[in-house]
Amino acid sequence: MKTIICLLLGALAPAAHATIFTVSNNPNRPAQYENVTDAIAAADHGDTIYVHGSQFTYPDFTINKRLVVIGAGYNSNNEFNFPTRVNYIRVIRDAGLQNANGSVITGFLITDRIINATSTGVHDVIVFRNRIVGISLHNQSFGGNGFCNNWQIYNNVIDWIQGRSFAGSTDSSPVNIIIQNNIIRQVMDLVSNTVIIDHNIFFGGNNLDRLFYAVVTNNVFIRSSGNVMTNTVNFNTFNNNFSILNTISPTAPTNDFASQSNTAANNIIAPGQNPFVNAADLNTYSGTANYRIAAASQAKDAGTDGTDLGIYGGAFPFPSGGAPGSGFDTSPLPPIPQVTEMNISNTTIQPGTSLNVNVKARVNN
Fold first, then answer.
1. Strands (E), 29-170
2. Could you list the pLDDT tens digit for every one of the 365 residues in the chain?
3. Strand 290-293 to strand 337-344: parallel, antiparallel, or no bridges (unpaired)?
């Protein structure tokens, strides 16, 4: 396994001579460390930490250096099918040596949130291929100004992303936030024209709340009731989005993305039209659904870039972790080589003879 992990260096590790550390809290599959905190303490800026999948939840940990932290996936399509589960991942930056700027987080099942835990923002972070309840792009104490800038959030299944606490249109908030190709419920409390919300699938109502000046393009808004936006969504640009209901806004005109002082062009409102190949539940995410755009849907090839609306168009088409309908299609593994099966064909051998091990592995591009 360590040899395979080393191949990751060329793809993700930011330094040419970065060290890789392994973590496992499963006593039957030991690694260098039992918890992520100890591995972080041993690591230097630019190092990589690989956290094995396990039947046990890992303790919360804090990233205080520029690290690439990689889990085994949130729904691993292999013979073990153990996720890398943790409740909280905290990132910090202070005036001293603790600085998580430039870190990468991928392959985790995060049952609570990723959060900035200091009054200073952590910048230039990439979060992809995770399943997450939420991301807080501000410091942990509500009302603080520790805003995180230049984050790229893509190919996740996520409940919510929050920029600050209860934003108004004249407040400051995180800037240069890219939210692309996610399956998501809500984005809220962001105030900047450098916020890009593009090629996502939104489930449920009130998907956008306290959002100002953002650019919202190529998304699919799916629900059986409710509105796309609350009445605190103003001065945004909406282009080439799709809504299955004509209740876009709670204020008149309710059927128009240009309501509430927003601007809009080329949006598609198609009451009753399910745009997907196979998705029966239009209120919640399902791992067995096929969210590719059906050939006959108006959302097909309707993006500002000529690609499909939703998660399979745009710059980061959602990778597949398995066949549609298998339960793994929207559970992509991190983009590293991983062993999926291992079989020892001669468990009893004589001294000096070979142990025959058959291994199947794949690269999860």
1. 48-51, 61-63, 68-71, 85-91, 104-106, 109-116, 126-128, 131-139, 152-154, 157-162
2. 333 333 333 334 444 468 999 999 999 999 999 999 999 999 999 999 999 999 999 999 999 999 999 999 999 887 778 999 999 999 999 877 789 999 999 999 999 999 998 888 999 999 999 999 999 999 866 455 689 999 999 999 999 999 998 999 999 999 999 999 999 999 999 999 999 999 999 999 999 999 999 999 999 999 989 999 999 999 999 999 999 999 999 999 999 999 999 999 999 999 989 999 999 998 999 999 999 999 999 999 999 999 999 999 999 999 999 999 999 999 999 987 766 666 777 767 778 777 777 777 666 66
3. unpaired
Q: Which range of residues forms the domain containing residue 40?
A: 1-150
**Whether residues 211 and 280 fall in one domain:** yes
User: Both 129 and 231 in a single domain?
Assistant: no
* End-to-end Cα distance, the chain: 18
Same domain assignment for residues 184 and 143: no
Q: Are residues 206 and 128 in the same domain?
A: no
The Cα–Cα gap between 162 and 325 comes to: 31
Q: Say yes or no: 90 and 133 in one domain.
A: yes
Count how many domains the chain has: 2
- 302, 189: one domain: yes
Q: Which of 95, 120, 150 is at the close of a domain? A: 150
